[in-house]
Amino acid sequence: MDTIYIVIVLVLLGLAALDLYVGVANDAVNFLNSAIGSKVAPLWVILTVASGGVIIGSIFSSGMMEIARSGVFYPGKFTFNDIMLLFLAVMVTDVILLDVFNTFGMPTSTTVSLVFELLGAGVAVALVNIWQSDTGVLLDYINSGKTLTIISAILVSVVVAFIFGSTIMYFTRMLFSFRYKKTFKYFGAFWTGLSLTAITYFAIFKGLKGSSLISQDVYSYLNENTLMLLFYSFIFWTLLMGIMQHLFKVNILKFNILAGTASLALAFASNDLVNFIGVFMAGLGAYEIATGVVASGGSIENLTMEKLSEPVVADWRYLLGAAVVMILALWFSKKARSVTKTEVNLSRQSEGTESFSSTAASRSLVRGAMNMSKVVSVITPQKVLDFIDSRFEPLKEEEKEDSSFDLIRASVNLSVATLLISLGTSLKLPLSTTYVTFMVAMSSSLADRAWGRESAVYRISGVLTVISGWFLTAIVAFTVSAGVAFALMYGGVYAIIGSIGLVVFLFIQFAIIHKKREAKQESIDLNEFKTEHDIIVECTHEIEQSVDNIIEIYQGVLNGLFSEDRKALNKLYKKADEFHGRSKRRRLNDVLPTIQKLEHQSLDTAQYYVQAVDYFYEISVSLRFITESSYKFIDNAHEGFSKEQIEDLKLLGAEFIAVYSDFNEMIQKNDYSGLAIIKERRAILLDLYSELMKKQIKRTKEKESGSRNTILYLNILNETKEIAMKSVNLMRAQMNLYNSDDYVKIMS
Fold first, then answer.
1. For residue 342, what are the contacts with CB-CB under 8 A and spacing of at least 6?
2. Residues 345 and 374 in one domain
3. Same structural domain, 626 and 594
4. Nearest CA to 95 among 305, 279, 282, 364?
């Protein structure tokens, strides 16, 4: 047997490990978002509980491995060589596709991606065989019925999950309200028992179905006596929760949420493990079949893979190894945090930074919902409306907990998701756990009135973006997998090497992109600062860093213009654009939370902070305009500045840098007594601006400067003047902000 097949098996193993890591980073949101969003326990406790579920679920896995072997295509129609290249194309595509979604923090379905990658690669390899042999039709190779079933199940699961999630959350909130602790004393054991019964049902039918560690007889018994077992389960959990709540004073909601998290993690590892290592296991199985044929003296040139259709029991050592990789991804993957953050932010109860912009579709949906709400309000008696409003009355600021949503919503999310997924499994529908858990989380947040008029268009836009990504997953998975398969079929060894290199290159590039995205989205977490003094100190520190950036960018732009260094100007333009983006995000997202964090009597401090942020934003606009204009000027190869213009700008730049250097020194020493001197420097700078403006007008009239040259020169003068004007205002606001700190007053 050719060595290339051993190489392919090893590559499949490596890609499977990588796929596990990137796949879990995306799927982790399915079983972590409720626990993390409600802050039911410290993160290490949540991850420990989920890790236990992953280990148990991985060992129970193997019954779903047939999907990769024969669920989408008929393996008997493909030769050994064809099947190995097909599996390689699937793994290459899966790693790249999932890493793209992780990089941009978008949850997607690993099940759908796998199925459509298998379909795309299967179609490509089948077409090559048909073209080369001039016989056969595509339907002889592809299980088209399975594909249609999956697509229809996806559409149904999205709608059903949204309806059930919103309905159950609505009536649950009506029962408990946001001040649920009093009512929960009486109905808590009943509610939690019901929820844990659903979780138990889920663990049995979704987590243990097809397991290699329970016999078919045991599973048949469980299946035949489902109703009786569920009744006993409900009685057991209700009594146990009542005892824990009333005798031992345990917060049974937290127990419920952690149990649901473990159950979802178990089912995920048990049933979705095929999405990551199923293709490798199938490739290894094909290699073992071919090895047996060669050992018996046969030829593998035209060996077809009918045996892949036979049932298989996965080696527990591979399953345990997969569990270890999955747990490492849970604990250490930053991209997993990004995906979880997306879903939690879309479902959080409070207002804050929105990750998505509004769209025409989201605005239309919100307006339609508002009009429908008005109609319902007209036909509903006022007493009923008042009662409903009283049950949905939000908590006061001092009553709120530091979490995205409360324990009631988290338990609803887990209970409804587990119930729907287990119901779909019992009906043998290929539901996606990602689609169900996401839609339940979004529908429950809608029913819980988390999407107010301040945030609805942005949240709906985010949901529509994620749903669009789901359908895009299927299209891209099919197309890219087919393209890779075509390349492998025609390119041979060179294509194999190229595909491996492509995976490595893109994986590194996406890691760099993700790191940059994380850096751009970084902002001060005001929850870390407990006092007004902490906030002022942190803001002062950021202003100091920003002043350094202004000095560096402004001086660099002038030097780049003088030397006509296009690359340096391009880097400075990107840096100025990033600086402008940070200033804009701070102005949009951080001002309100900061004001709310300050004490009620700190009106002056809040005013000075708002002024400082606003002045910095305006300075960033001017600085970005200077760098952009300068870069485009040199990039278009326009004639550079004359010696006289350069000398003038050097003089202007020296005065500008001097002002900011003095300002920086004032911040570092916390001594603002020199503000009067800076005002004098500003006056000198403005006089110089007027003088240089007249000189340039004279040069223009005498045609010593071209039109592009003059426009850029005047733009630099004007924007420098604007920055200088805003700078003194910024310095005054910073001085007042610092002096408003009670801590400073006490220490002085």
1. 29, 105, 106, 107, 355, 462, 466
2. yes
3. yes
4. 279
Cβ atoms of 387 and 139 within 8 Å: the answer is no
Do 501 and 553 belong to one domain?
A: no
Claim to verify: residue 425 and residue 540 sit in the same structural domain: no
For the packed helices 80-103 and 110-133, what is the interaxial angle rounded to 10 degrees?
Answer: 140
Q: Which of 502, 521, 540 is the last residue of a domain?
A: 521
Q: For residue 279, what is the enclosing H or E element?
A: helix 274-295
How many residues comprise the chain?
A: 748
The full DSSP string for 601-660 is: T-HHHHHHHHHHHHHHHHHHHHHHHHHHHHHHHHHTT-----HHHHHHHHHHHHHHHHHH
Task: Tell me the CATH number at 637.
Answer: 1.20.58.220
Q: Is 298 exposed, middle or buried (0-12, 13-18, 19+ CB in 10 A)?
A: exposed
Please write the tens of the pLDDT for every residue from 612-636.
888 888 989 999 999 999 999 999 9
Residue ending a domain, choose from 463, 486, 521: 521
Whole-angstrom distance, CA of residue 454 vs CA of residue 441: 19
Residue 16: pLDDT over 90: no
Output the DSSP codes for 328-377: HHHHH-HHHHHHHHHHHHHH-SS----SS---HHHHHHHHHHHHHHHHHH
Split into its structural domains, the chain has a count of 2
User: What pLDDT digit, counting tens, does each position of 430-463 carry?
Assistant: 567 788 888 898 889 989 988 877 778 888 888 8
Tell me how far CA of residue 209 lies from CA of 64, 92, 206, 218, in angstroms: 9, 29, 6, 11
Instruction: Indicate if 416 and 547 belong to the same structural domain.
Output: no
Are 439 and 389 part of one and the same domain? yes
> Are 444 and 397 contained in the same domain?
yes
Residue type, 442: M
In this structure, the answer to whether residues 473 and 535 fall within a common structural domain is no
pLDDT digits (tens, 9 = 90+) for 548-564: 888 899 999 999 999 99
Q: Is the pTM for the entire model greater than 0.85?
A: no
Q: Name the residue with tokens 């190489």.
A: 7
> 381: which DSSP letter?
-
Domain span at residue 735 reads 526-747
Q: Which of 270, 449, 339 is nearest to 99 (CA)?
A: 339
